[in-house]
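Can't paste images in this forum, so I'm doing it all in text. The chain is below; anyone willing to post the predicted structure tokens underneath?
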Amino acid sequence: MNADLVFGIHAVGALLQRAPQDVLELFVMKDRDDKRMQPLIQEARQNGVSVQFCNRKTLDDMVGGQHQGIIAKARLQSSGSEADLAAIVAQHEKPFILVLDGVTDPHNLGAILRSADAAGVHAVVSPKDRSVKLTSVVRKVACGAAESVPFITITNLARTLRELQDAGVWVVGTAGETETTIYQADFKGPLAIVLGAEGEGLRRLTRETCDSLVKIPMFGSVSSLNVSVAAGICLFEAVRQRS
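Text version of the structure:
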């Protein structure tokens, strides 16, 4: 584990709820009269966490603003491994996995994790290289989902996709050039949905490794969607089918 800063009311609240033992210290803005803040302060103190009251500038200097008046210093779990992913797949009769092929924007990853949590995704998978990690900004945007959805980093995406296939998981990539829409695809069984990077889409080897390709039908003048928006649409079509 490594120490990091988690900020924002939802992210800190989720951390205190799920892993209070990992919170080392809480920094709260002085004189902030916020009904949402008091339960967090109380919960921290009940778990023996030191609470420091600071002025806004001190908090701004710690994380560059956007902290909502509260920052936690915490021991954060590192990302999971290929072995963790294999264990998660083995635990579920119908695994539901989201794979990201090189998402680099922390705001996009945070939003994707939030959608993944809401959709009941069992794990989010991302390559170690050329991809954003679980930063404090990701955790803030995820509003607690970064603490609830297993985030797995792997070294070789194509190999991991083949291992998922060997475990009986159907790997579906998203690509604009296919004729099959997400509404025509079958998402009911063991499933991994693969989304490409912002602007670039799936890499060639990733695309070739997928069992099938699907697209979100587009009816306007824009040619593509933000990857976090696309993730939400694909995940909840899978939820609709799997329900």
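The first helix runs from residue 9 to 18. The chain has a mean pLDDT of 90.
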